[in-house]
Structure formats: structure tokens, C-alpha cells
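Quick note —
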Amino acid sequence: MTVKLLIDECLHTSLLDLAHAAGHVADHVNYLGLGGSKDWQLIATIRAQDYAFVTNNRADFLALHGQEPLHAGVIIIVPSVTPSRQRELFSAALKHIGARDLTNTVVEGLERRESFRRTGACGT
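Predicted structure written out below.
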């Protein structure tokens, strides 16, 4: 299953190449001219375009996605790390999700470990 990903401005643009190489459709907030947008403005785009969102802004986007009855998924890479470490963690996340449907799912990875966990809904 191809996942349509939107990568947040807080993450490096090189993550696009990894997403494309894994067979996914991906855009970056900065390349869409959405850099500097408020979170509520981004969530409107995410909803309208049916994006799974990749971010390290855990608290804000778990809360925003938690208010959505249906969303395409969230991939969280925390905390803020170097671009090379972001690529390592994102690669691990892409491997973890494989061809899974991310609808109403949070995939979360932490810098201190390579493993990712999936939860059934935001905030659970």
C-alpha cells in the first residue's frame, strides 16, 4: 500500500528521498509553501489532502489529530535530532509500517531506540 506523506518543516527535506525510494508519495511542508503555517492551518491541509503526517511536534499534533474522527495517520520522530539521525529513524519507521494502512494510527519512534510502536488512535 502506498502511503501519502506530508513531512513537517521541523524535519529535513532529505526525508522525501527516503519516502520516494520506499514507494510512497511524499511532500514537504516547505516545498508546498506552507512553512511557518500555524498547526491548525497545517491540519486543514493534512485533512483535505488525506496526508499521513510526519513530524517531531508530538504534543501539538497528537492533540490535533485526536480531535479528528478519521485521519490518515501520524509518524512521530522525537526528539529533535540531526538530519542524519532523522534519516535513520525515518528509515526505521518506513520499514516498520511497510504496506500497512495507517488510518487512525500513530507510529512513534524515539531517538534512544530504533524500535517504533503503533497505537490504535491518537493519544492512546
